[in-house]
Amino acid sequence: MRVYSIRAPADRYSIDLLERNFRLRHTIFVDMQGWEAIRRPDRRDVDAFDTEDATHLLLLDGDELVGGSRFTPLDKPNLLQTVFPGLVQGAFPASPSLGADWTRFYVRPDRREGRRRAPESAALFCAMMEYALLEGYCFITFVSTIYMLEHGVSMGWHITPLGAPALIDGKPTLAAWIEVSEEALANVRRVTGQTAPMLAERGVIHQSLPMPAAARH
């Protein structure tokens, strides 16, 4: 398994992967998790933050898309400050230009069912920190349930809430930031058992994977 970073403009194979990502996100977040507010007739989960500023980290096993997540720079329009500003009651630890908002994390259900710590999740968590270090970010923000925050702490991350939890769709939800550091990367690798880098070099996706039939025409 490898994680590939994709950002527009992209080649034809990357565009095909993004489309598969948008459709899989719709299945997971709308059909399975019930986010009816983002349901679309074309069954693609695409919102105002899937722009050229966004970077998508997509996890592939061979040619199979099995997971993903999205990063948006905090000095560009982002989900946290646009949709959930009420959750931000404290200050960011540094300039927004040094941070990114982490959203739309998912692992395909059949790849995590019945497993407490799926290797797919581990790969994405490691790749997230690798990417943040590569980009020179010093913090990452996210919005999640209390459970996800506790899960992040269990991986050795330093996480600071940006405000008190609020009930969203009946679940206690909060905004927080994760400190980006080599120590954080070492901790998540140790906890998840990942020893090698998970994030592939940029620009190698079309060289390292066979192009699917849908992208050949």
Automatic annotation (TrEMBL):
Organism domain of life: Bacteria
- By its UniProt entry, which PROSITE patterns does this protein fall under? AUTOINDUCER_SYNTH_2
As its record notes, the protein acts as a catalyst of: a fatty acyl-[ACP] + S-adenosyl-L-methionine = an N-acyl-L-homoserine lactone + S-methyl-5'-thioadenosine + holo-[ACP] + H(+)
Keyword list (alphabetical) reads: Autoinducer synthesis, Quorum sensing, S-adenosyl-L-methionine, Transferase
| Gene3D superfamilies for the chain | 3.40.630.30
MF terms (GO), sorted A to Z? N-acyl homoserine lactone synthase activity
* EC number(s) per entry: 2.3.1.184
- EC class: transferase
Q: Which Pfam families match?
A: Autoind_synth
Family, according to the entry, reads as follows: Belongs to the autoinducer synthase family.
Q: What is this protein called?
A: Acyl-homoserine-lactone synthase
Whose protein is this, by species?
Devosia ginsengisoli
Q: Which taxonomic lineage does the organism of this UniProt entry have?
A: Bacteria, Pseudomonadati, Pseudomonadota, Alphaproteobacteria, Hyphomicrobiales
